[in-house]
Each structure stands twice: as C-alpha cells, then as structure tokens.
Amino acid sequence: MVNSLISLSIRNRYIVLLVALGMFAWGIFAIRDNPIDAIPDLSENQVIVFTEWMGRGPQVIEDQVTYPLVSNLQGIPKVKNVRGTSMFGMSFVYVIFEDNVDTYWARTRVLERLNYAQRLLPQGVTPALGPDGTGVGHIFWYHLDAPKMDLGEQRALQDWYVKFALQTVPGVAEVASYGGFEKQYQLVLDPVKLQFYNVSLMDVMNKVKANNNDVGGRKFEMSDMAYIIRGLGYIKNKEDIENIAVGNYNAIPVRVKDIGSVQMGSDLRLGIFDNNGEGEVVGGILVMRYAENADKVIRAVKEKMKDVEKGLPPGVKFKVDYDRSTLIEAAIENIKNKLLEEIAIVSLIVILFLFHWRSALSIVIQIPITIAISFILLNAFGLSSNIMSLTGIALAIGVIVDNGIIMSENAYRQLSERGG
Predict the structure, then answer these.
(1) How far is residue 83's CA from residue 214's CA, in Å, rounded to a whole number?
(2) Whether residue 341 is found in the same domain as residue 403
(3) Phi and psi of 170, rounded to 5°?
C-alpha cells in the first residue's frame, strides 16, 4: 500500500504539488478564521438556570425552587449531571450535558422542560437561563469615571444606557452591571397608623401596584377626527406615591402619606466594587458568547465604546479594568516569534548538515504546509488558537523535520544501493 502510494506520487508529482499548494492556501484561510484566545476553554458543556425569589432563606429556596427544578431537569436527553445551589433569595441549577452536544440545542431542551416545571414553582417565581457563555467568557471589565455623579446616577446610566448599547456588539452574550446603588421608592409605614386606619400591609402593596399603570380606552370620533382615549397612571415621583389612596376612614380617603413616608433609597447590596482603594465605582463585565473569537469581540467592544462615550454626560469616561486582548496579543506574538525562530534554526541546521539544497528544501517546505494544515484541523474540531495549541504546533516541528530527514536518508540509501 505504501509502495503503491509512493509510486503514484512520483508518477504524478505535479498533481501532488498542486494538492500541497491547495492545502497550504486552505490553511492560510483557516488561520484567518480560527478563533484566537489566550487560554483554551476547558469548561463543561453546561446550561445555567437562575431563579430569583427575594426575601426567602436558603432552606425555603432549596425545598420550593431548587429541588423541583433539579428533579424535572434530570430527564433531558444527553445530560450527564444536574447540580443545584441554593442561597438567600436565589437558586442556581447547572445542567451538565455531554461534550458533543450542541450548546443551543441543549438550551432549547432545557427551555422546553422549564415550561413544564414552571407549574411546580411558587406563584410569581420564574426561572431564567443564564448567558450562553462559559467559565472563561469574562473577557472585558470596565468602570465609569464620573467624579461629579453619585453612585445611584452612575448605576442608572450603566443599566439604562451603556449596558443596552454594548449588548448589541456581535459575540457579546451579556453585560453584567456591578457597583453603585439601584434606585428604589421605599415606603416606610407606621404600624400604629396602619392599625388605627384598619389598613393592612397587603392592601398598601396592592393599591400601590394597581395605581402604577397606564390603561387604554377606545377611539372617540368627533368632527371627522378620531381621538385615542387612554389613562396615564405611571408613577413619576414620590409625591405620586404619597397621594395614592389605600383605604378610607369615615368616608375620608386614607393616602400613603397618612400612614407613613416615601423616600428614595437603594436596593439591598451584598457587596461593593472598589477601585484600587480609591472608592466605589460602577461598571460592567462583558461575557463572550460560546465559541466566539475573543480578540475580535474585544476589538468590536472597544469600537462600540468610542461611540457610546460620545453620548455620555460631560466629564464621564470609560476606564478599562481588565482587557484580555492584551494577554491574547502578547501570548500569540510570543508564540509566533518562537515559531519563526524555530523554523529558521531548523532550516539552517538541515541545510548545513545535509549540504544538499534540494533535499533540504523538500524537508523545510514541509514545515509551513504542515502548520497550515493543522489550522484546518483546529477549525474542524472547534479548537481556538491559544497558548496550548500553538505550543503543541511548535513542539511538533521537530517531529516533522525528523520524518523528512529519515525519508531523505532512506531515499539516498536506496539510490546508492541500486547504483552500486
């Protein structure tokens, strides 16, 4: 078989050269399309189900949320393991799939099962899927440099402007906000006044919720004109909340301000984000979508941030806290230099020791062709260019050269024996 293949190659040497050139050109295009990252993604193929039920303890979350979800998600096809974690007000369920399962197929099957499991959860509790990223998807961190804005205003700017703009960048799965204060309208009620006016806490909650709403009517035609009738009832300031009627006492409306006070405050915080000991800041973490090109996504994010910065209030700028592209470019550049040095040294040694340019050329030419073909295989198996894969290619150059030298020496021996 090997002899026949060698004979066929010798008789059709031009075809072999054309095939080699074609593979080399294909490999060059594969290098351009191959995702680039600093480290290989060795995380498990998982789908995260996140459920929030604020105010409940871990044991209640475990019994009423985590356990029903874990029990029902175990029947999904091609699932290796289902893990659940319960904490104060939150539940996390990790559905681990087999490695060969497509990520988005897995997310679809989990969503199908969640539609069934929803009926087993308490009323008002809705599970949601986590971002379609992995454990190494945190590629970019930033914060807002806004010395003239308080932390609540910075968080509002981050949540309602910056976050939505950066989520439109291709390859970004999520922009997670951190730091600052999430603004709230807080009702501070007097229990004595509640008892005096015979108003329950649930009455206050329901009345406030019902009065924060727009309602629609119908069209009203007059003088060949049609007018749309609607009721505008959204709360715009704390005075609107204070004037909401929650009951009556001797035919007199009891308003919120009669039983307590309304103030602007912040949501419960479980931590802060400090910038090098200089004080709290507000920012975001960009999570890359699964199997994307990290270097390409980061470049697109930086371009988008330049556009977003034009719409920020005066004096507000972005500050980068973590940028993986720096590590990626340094690692790739280092490996590239080592590859070029190794190729040059190996080529020089082969030429000096063989002292025959045709034999040396046949060995040296194998190096770029083999490296180019290796990137075709990297794309075929869904692997990225990173420190591990490029180091493996660099180590394999010695094996490639050894094989070429052995074949050249064997060809010389065979020719000498036949000539003798």
Answers:
(1) 42
(2) yes
(3) -60, 135
